[in-house]
Design a protein that fits this description.
A hairpin with a 5-residue loop joins strand 11 and strand 12. This protein has one domain. 40% of the residues are buried. By secondary structure, the chain is α+β, with helices and mostly antiparallel strands. It has eight helices and 15 strands. A 13-stranded mixed β-sheet has the order 6-13-10-12-11-3-4-2-5-14-9-8-15. The termini are far apart. Helix 7 packs across helix 8. Its cofactor is heme b. Belongs to the heme-containing dehydratase family. Pfam families: Dehydratase_hem. This is Phenylacetaldoxime dehydratase family protein.
Length: 352
């Protein structure tokens, strides 16, 4: 058994772990490992927003265009596609890409066929909206957790391997303890979200993040489930999970949740795949931890999972959690409704 924090990222602690030195977890889990030359990754969420079935084909065509771009030189090393309906009743198709370093992402983004498409005035006159939410954590600013060691989803898809069994899990606070920066930094937020442009008027709006915005991607996969296992998951666990996700989507603002999307994986024809995950932005890691440890909406999900876990042997659960420097975030919304993503909580800068 080893620490979730890789050897080359360990340093003398000035902040203690939540678990004692003699703690031993009750079951095995693993984390993704990066080689020492992996210093920073890029997580990109590229969305298409529409309302009404008459615009679905246009939205799917835009999603396919984004994914086609992923296949060009310097595209992401791992990607997936999802659908969700937001609190305002809009459908959103999102292509999520991961890059091993910002330089590769920068070259991809600068390609004329990529930059030209995003910057074109055609995006402003389309019948659908577009957004891209980009964040680039250093390797000491994120953690992963998997109860499996193959086909790692999310950021695990661009990492170099998998750890041995790790110590820091199955107790409150273990998420923070797996982030290397937690050895010396509380990762407290500083500043506010700010918007360049007016979300109420639409058009093209840029949101600037503040220090230590936190992002969690928490996933559930059941493609290999037997019929009875699938029925158990969909009737006893998924409803509690959906209720918690809807609560954060609709009322999470007062808890410090900027945006919560509970998404279903899809293929490029928009057909569902037996995988879901939450994409959740928070003001801080502290706020995320407080919700997870104390709020009834999350505790109900926790109890539902624990009470049925042994009867769900093929259910794959995982998550990744990151915090970001202010300058390593870029959020852009084009023709989106004003509550999309981080737009809702961004303060518009006064006109010059």
């Amino acid at each position: 058994m080893e620490s979730a924090i890789d050897t080359h990222l360990q340093c003398p602690r000035t902040l203690s772990r939540r678990a004692g030195e003699d703690y031993r977890p009750p079951f095995p889990v693993w984390v993704a490992r990066g080689a020492e030359d992996l210093t920073q990754v890029v997580m990109g969420y590229f969305g298409v927003q529409y309302r009404g079935e008459e615009h679905r084909d246009e939205a799917l065509a835009a999603l396919r265009h984004i994914v086609d771009g992923f296949g060009r030189d310097d595209g992401p090393g791992a990607w997936d596609t999802t659908h969700h309906e937001d609190a305002a009743g809009y459908d959103n198709l999102v292509a999520v890409g991961y890059w091993r370093d910002p330089d590769t992402y920068g070259r991809w983004l600068a390609r004329p066929e990529v930059a030209g498409w995003w910057d074109s005035d055609d995006r402003l006159t389309a019948n659908v909206g577009f957004f891209r939410e980009i964040a680039s954590p250093r390797v000491d600013q994120f953690e992963t957790l998997y109860p499996f060691t193959d086909h790692l989803p999310g950021v695990g898809g661009v990492m170099d391997g998998v750890s041995d069994e790790v110590e820091e899990h199955a107790y409150w606070g273990s998420m923070r303890d797996r982030i290397p920066l937690s050895q010396t930094d509380r990762m407290r937020p500083a500043g506010e979200l700010s918007a360049e442009g007016d979300p109420a008027r639409g058009g093209r709006v840029i949101v600037r993040g503040h220090a230590n915005v936190a992002l969690i991607r928490s996933g559930q996969e059941w493609p290999d489930a037997e019929p009875d296992e699938r029925e158990l998951y969909l009737t006893e666990i998924e409803p509690a999970l959906r209720a918690a996700m809807d609560f954060l989507r609709d009322r999470g603002h007062r808890l410090g949740c900027y945006s919560n999307r509970y998404v279903r994986s899809i293929d490029l024809d928009g057909l569902p795949i037996d995988k879901t995950y939450a994409i959740s932005h928070w003001r801080s890691l502290d706020r995320l931890e407080q919700w997870a440890e104390t709020h009834p909406s999350h505790l109900r999900v926790f109890v539902a999972f624990v009470s049925t876990a042994k009867r769900l042997p093929t259910l794959r659960l995982y998550h990744e959690v990151s915090v970001f420097d202010a300058g390593e975030q870029y959020y852009e919304y084009v023709n989106c409704h004003p509550a999309t993503g981080l737009l809702r909580d961004a303060v518009s800068a006064p006109p010059a």
